[in-house]
Structure formats: structure tokens, C-alpha cells
Amino acid sequence: MTAAPRTDEEVPGWVRDLGLPGLADIHVHFMPDRVLRKVWAFFDRAEEHYGRPWPITYRTDERTRLATLRALGLRAVPALSYPHRPGMAEWLNDWSAGFARRVPDAVHCATLYPEPGAGDYVRRALAEGARLVKTHVQVGGFAPDDPLLDDAWAALAEAGTPVVMHAGSGPRPGAFTGPGPVRRLLEAHPGLVLVVAHLGMPEYHAFADLAEEFDRVHLDTTMVGTDFTEAFAPLPDGFRERLAGLRDKVVLGSDFPNIPYPYAHQLEALARLDLGEEWLRAVLWDNGARLLGLPAR
Known about the structure:
Oligomer: single chain
Distance between the termini: 19 Å
Radius of gyration: 18 Å
Helix content: 40-55%
Order of helices and strands: HHHHEHEEHEHHEHEHEHHEHH
Largest sheet: 6 strands, parallel
Strand order of the largest sheet: 3-4-5-6-7-8
């Protein structure tokens, strides 16, 4: 096997050597500029929030960020965004629909928040073509099983639309983070296609339990195994073996552009798990392509 990439320039050749048509990354952020600037401002104060610096590696304009992802080999570009207060989700969904119209390789995304009418605007987003949804339990400060979201979850389960949910308690816990609320959600809506971000960091084993128990639950790799994350939320004993067994449910995620290292380092971190080329092919392309509706290799 070709040595794992250490720079972004090495990524396309490494992907080709694996026999893949590209990368199917399910966890990429594009959002309105004023929202993204606020996100970056938050990370600029990461030492205050997290006790360690978090420099943004890809702090560039939208055109440059799109070109960077295409050069890396992404065949579809998600535009994940998420609200932190009521009245924001529908506006973000309108922006995301516009992004999908003007960016040919974009994945039309949507989001939601527990508020009256959530089911209505989620159904409208689905009717307009949304095929990926993002929620962030810690930032939003809400329980995923909030009754105000029941109609929205039912619509998403019926449509089979994947939902990327940050529900783990890392890098810092929230009032509703952790596997318990997510389990209650899945028990109420077992048909929901759920992608747990960051492998559920740091409750890795508990979220792997959910992936093993519920047929439509997946885990994304965002930031996991990198030098940065291993310093505060290392993969626990026995988890590497569980990832091998969950090969068909682990999906590539990166958190681009809000990462404190080059994109290539996420791929290097996955390669050094030493789970084999077939595992890498499944994680880097097959599973994400299936969820995003991309061609099989």
C-alpha cells in the first residue's frame, strides 16, 4: 500500500492508488459568510473555550475552499450548517438551497431546531431537494428527542435522508449531549438514517453500541485519530477492533474548513489505524457514496 498522505498535494495520488474515484466526505461546512465569521471568531478564542488553541487551516474565501476540496478529490460538497437559536434554521435552509443551485457539485443540505413548524420547513426542504441534514446538540442546546422535532424526524425517516448529528460530549459537554437522548430518539424513530459525528467522541463505545444495534445508524470519522484529538479524546482500548467490525457503517468526515491541521492528516490518521485497504475503501468512498447518492466504485 502506498504511504499515507502527509500533505494535501499527496492526497489525489494516494486515493487513486486505492482504486477509488475520489473521496465521499459527509462532514463539510459551508454557510453564510457572517455565520462562518462568527464560527471562526469562536475558534479564535479556543484557549478560553477548550483550553487549547484551534487555528483554522482553511480560512479562505468560498471560491478557494471549493477549489481546495475539488483538488483533494471530493466528488460532492456538503454544505452543513446548524442553528443555535429559534428562528434561524429556516433561514439557513433557504441559504443552503441557494448554495446548491449555484454550486453544481454541492450536496443540498438542511438543518432544524426544536420549534413550532420544524416539521413543515423540513418537509419543504426535502421537497426542494435537500438530501443531507445537520444538527448540533451541544451548540443548539436542545435534546434530540424534543417533542417539537417529532414531525421533522418522522419526515426524515420516511424520506431516508441522512442526518449528521453532533451528539457526543466532545470537545466539551452540553446539557443534552451523550448517547442517552440519541437512544431515545432512535427508539421513537428507528428508521432514521443517523450519522453520529466524530464517532461520538468521547463516548466512543456507547455510540458504537447504537451503530451495532440500529441498522441505519452510522459513525463519521471527523477529527478522530488525529494528533490533535488524540491529545484530549484518544480512541479507547478495543475500539480499533470495533471499527473493523463496523466497516460498512463508518463514513469519512473531516470538519473542513474548521480544522487545525491539513486535510491530509485526517486521511493519515485513518490509514495508521492499520485496518487494511478494503476498510479504507469502504470508509473513504463506499459508505459515504451510498449515503450521498454517488456512484459505486
